[in-house]
């Protein structure tokens, strides 16, 4: 949450920072701001409540002076409502230090109190502003910006990262990461250096990046990038080459990122599957968990965890692991994992799913599990992100950068990765035969083409979306493998269309939710061939008998069930284990087109941000 960017080099800083903030805006769009430093002149700042476009408009009237270094911020508000005053960057009492911050200063109240007692005037309601004042106090005692940052970090509680500039060191930007709330990644380029909270902001400039680890400080100038521990020891950064295509992160021909990323799925899935299996001969090739064979052969129990869409991927993962390995498998919401005393016997495998690899609740749960010494595998779409550093093994999905706040392609690629992990576990534990494993792999390989075809024929779905866009409440029902897709469909619907939607096991209806049913409270039933169709069709009848409207997702050719529901759309026929893929495509598209009909801001839904790095 919150996007941070810092630039120092030979280009005019403001346009570079603005461009970068555009790609980081998915992290928060409550306000935005830029601070630039121009030699001996005071630091100049432009900050505006609202979206980046509001800041741009403002800067057309009140432009910032030309400068070669600066920092910028897009905000997802935690402390203090969105306003010009609460927008970052924040300045110190004399205006000589600026800070752009992500995360939470948990002890900001006591720091605020102490600063006030020393006569500092605090202008905003944010937790972040105290950092700027503390930095100036330390710099005024003769410390460099970098040393002041290290000292101030010892006063801050909570998980956070920030970048800072001082008027006394023009051209220098210092960044620091404390804890799991928000990573920082540094971009290397000749005569330029930059620092961002997501690699996506660096891609137009460079493919050479290094991630800052917890409790590391970095100082960048146009010619140097130097990293230190908080104790001041210099450390070597692990520079990697991203080889990522900037075009793939743009909207292209599509009106919204969400639609583009839905349409990316055949390719994303194909890339992911190809990176994890070899065909001809067919075998599993999960390099990132290679060295764990002995440990995995001893596993007796699996726990999966994630948040939001990744939690739903974990639920699908459970179906796969149970089916393919017979191992007892639990799924736990990562934030609740921390609130419980989860028993993790030594033969437990913990599988975390986080497309960003930065979600703070997942990281905290992983750290707890690490203390208990269990084997950990993480599924992530972000190379070298924090989760992959905590886990013993990692399975990377190859979805490409996902910028839409609503996760789409990272969900289907994560479940593909979990399907292959389940097969590998089964192989190691000798549960399925090689022939069975190969057959399952070949089934999965067919999925991208199946989805490609499905995505080419959305006309009926669009008509249905128009009809259902008038309702304000919705129930999504599923059973077995498609229950997680009902939950995911409801989440997508809430998130992008603001329709109140709930996902339920179809069998649960008569235990309470059916009381909600009338002609204004419709149901969307996932009743494909493999979604325990016969049992679900009885639940559909029960709803219809109570004047409830039923829309259904059926397997191609199921005219019998189509005949009894109000409206139906079809999905292609596939195997039982792969039905969640095609069902997902349908619910994602439905949510998108319903939101479109309702005129929602699909790529920037209110109150949300893409990467959740605060608790
Ligand atoms: C879903 O559309 C959301 N973007 C959200 O639920 C997301 O899946 C969740 O925040 C987890 O993110 P992660 O995969 O990066 O950990």
Q: Could you please describe the fold and organization of this structure?
A:
This protein is α/β, with parallel strands linked by helices and 615 residues long. The protein is 35% helix and 22% strand. The chain has 20 helices and 27 strands. It has an 8-stranded antiparallel beta sheet with strand order 3-2-4-1-10-9-11-15, covered by helices on one side. Helix 12 links the parallel strand 21 and strand 22. Helix 4 packs across helix 5, helix 7 (265-276) packs antiparallel against helix 15 (447-456) and helix 9 packs parallel to helix 13 (409-429). The mean pLDDT is 92. The structure holds 2-deoxy-2-amino glucitol-6-phosphate (AGP). The site of 2-deoxy-2-amino glucitol-6-phosphate has 15 residues, from helix 9. 2-deoxy-2-amino glucitol-6-phosphate (AGP) binds next to helix 9.
- The percentage helix is 25-40%
| Main β sheet profile | 8 strands, antiparallel
If you average the pLDDT, what whole number results? Answer: 92
Structural class: alpha/beta
Shape: globular
Low-confidence stretches: none
Annotation field: number of helices: 20
* Straight-line distance between termini: 10 Å
**Quantity of strands, as a count:** 27
Radius of gyration: 25 Å
User: How would you write the strand order of the largest sheet?
Assistant: 3-2-4-1-10-9-11-15
Beta-strand residue percentage: 15-25%
Topology:
Layout: E1 3-8, H1 13-24, E2 31-37, E3 44-49, H2 52-61, E4 69-75, E5 90-91, E6 97-103, H3 108-117, H4 129-139, H5 145-153, E7 160-166, E8 173-178, E9 185-189, E10 192-196, E11 208-211, E12 216-220, E13 225-229, E14 234-235, E15 240-241, H6 257-263, H7 265-276, E16 277-278, E17 283-284, H8 293-297, E18 301-306, H9 308-325, E19 329-333, H10 334-337, E20 348-353, H11 360-371, E21 375-380, H12 386-390, E22 393-396, H13 409-429, H14 434-445, H15 447-456, H16 459-468, E23 473-478, H17 483-497, E24 500-505, E25 523-526, H18 533-544, E26 550-555, H19 559-562, E27 567-571, H20 579-597
Parallel strand pairs: 18-19, 18-20, 20-21, 21-22, 23-24, 23-25, 25-26, 26-27
Antiparallel strand pairs: 1-4, 1-10, 2-3, 2-4, 5-6, 6-7, 7-8, 8-12, 9-10, 9-11, 11-15, 12-13, 13-14, 16-17
Helix pairs in contact: 4-5, 7-13, 7-15, 9-13, 9-17, 13-14, 16-20, 17-20
The structure holds 2-deoxy-2-amino glucitol-6-phosphate.
């Amino acid at each position: 949450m919150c996007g941070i960017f810092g630039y120092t080099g030979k280009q005019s800083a403001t346009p570079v920072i603005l461009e970068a903030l555009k790609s980081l805006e998915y992290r928060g769009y409550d306000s935005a701001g830029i601070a630039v430093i121009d030699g001996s002149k005071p630091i100049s700042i432009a900050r505006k409540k609202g979206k980046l476009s509001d800041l741009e408009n403002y800067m057309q009237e009140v432009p910032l002076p030309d400068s070669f270094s600066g920092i910028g911020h897009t905000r997802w508000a935690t402390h203090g409502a969105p306003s010009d005053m609460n927008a970052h960057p924040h300045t110190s009492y004399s205006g000589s230090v600026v800070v752009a911050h992500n995360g939470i200063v948990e002890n900001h109240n006591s720091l605020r109190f102490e600063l006030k007692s020393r006569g500092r005037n605090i202008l905003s309601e944010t937790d972040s502003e105290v950092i700027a004042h503390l930095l100036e106090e330390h710099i005024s005692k003769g410390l460099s910006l970098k040393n002041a940052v290290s000292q101030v970090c010892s006063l801050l509680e909570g998980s956070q990262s920030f970048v800072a500039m001082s008027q006394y060191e023009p051209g220098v930007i210092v960044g620091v990461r404390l804890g799991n709330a928000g990573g920082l990644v540094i971009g290397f380029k000749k005569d330029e250096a930059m620092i961002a909270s997501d690699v996506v902001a660096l891609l137009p400039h460079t493919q050479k990046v290094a991630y800052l680890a917890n409790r590391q400080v970095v100082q960048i100038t146009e010619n140097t990038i130097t990293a230190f521990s908080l104790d001041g020891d210099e450390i070597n950064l692990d520079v990697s080459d991203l080889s990522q295509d900037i075009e793939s992160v743009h909207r292209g021909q599509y009106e919204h990122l969400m639609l583009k990323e839905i349409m990316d799925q055949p390719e994303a899935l194909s890339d992911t599957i190809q990176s994890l299996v070899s065909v001809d001969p067919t075998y599993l090739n999960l390099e990132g968990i290679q060295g764990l064979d002995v440990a995995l052969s001893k596993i007796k129990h699996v726990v999966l965890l994630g948040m939001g869409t990744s939690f739903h991927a974990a639920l699908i993962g459970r179906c796969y692991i149970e089916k393919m390995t017979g191992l007892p498998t639990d799924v736990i919401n990562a934030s609740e994992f921390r609130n419980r005393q989860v028993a993790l016997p030594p033969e437990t495998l913990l599988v975390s799913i986080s497309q960003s690899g930065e979600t703070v609740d997942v990281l905290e749960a992983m750290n707890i599990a690490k203390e208990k010494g269990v084997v950990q595998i993480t599924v992530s779409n972000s190379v070298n992100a924090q989760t992959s550093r905590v886990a013993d093994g990692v399975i990377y999905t190859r979805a490409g950068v996902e910028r839409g706040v609503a996760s789409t392609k990272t969900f289907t690629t994560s479940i593909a990765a979990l399907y292959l992990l389940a097969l590998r576990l089964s192989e190691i534990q000798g549960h399925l035969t090689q022939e069975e494993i190969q057959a399952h792999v070949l089934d999965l390989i067919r999925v991208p083409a199946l989805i490609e075809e499905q995505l080419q024929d959305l006309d009926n779905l669009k008509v249905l979306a128009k009809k259902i866009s008038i309702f304000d409440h919705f129930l999504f029902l599923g059973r077995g493998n498609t229950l997680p897709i009902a939950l995911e469909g409801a989440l997508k619907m809430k998130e992008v269309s603001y329709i109140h939607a709930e996902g339920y096991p179809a069998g649960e209806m008569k235990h309470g939710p059916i009381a909600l049913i009338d002609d204004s409270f419709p149901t969307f039933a996932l009743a494909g061939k493999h979604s325990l169709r016969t049992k679900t069709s009885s639940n559909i009848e029960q709803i219809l008998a109570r004047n409830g409207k039923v829309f259904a997702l059926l397997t191609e050719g199921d005219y019998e069930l189509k005949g009894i529901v109000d409206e139906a759309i079809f999905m292609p026929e596939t195997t039982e284990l792969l039905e969640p893929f095609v069902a997902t495509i349908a619910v994602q598209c439905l949510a998108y087109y319903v939101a479109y009909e309702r005129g929602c801001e699909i790529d920037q839904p209110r109150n949300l941000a893409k990467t959740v790095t605060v608790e």
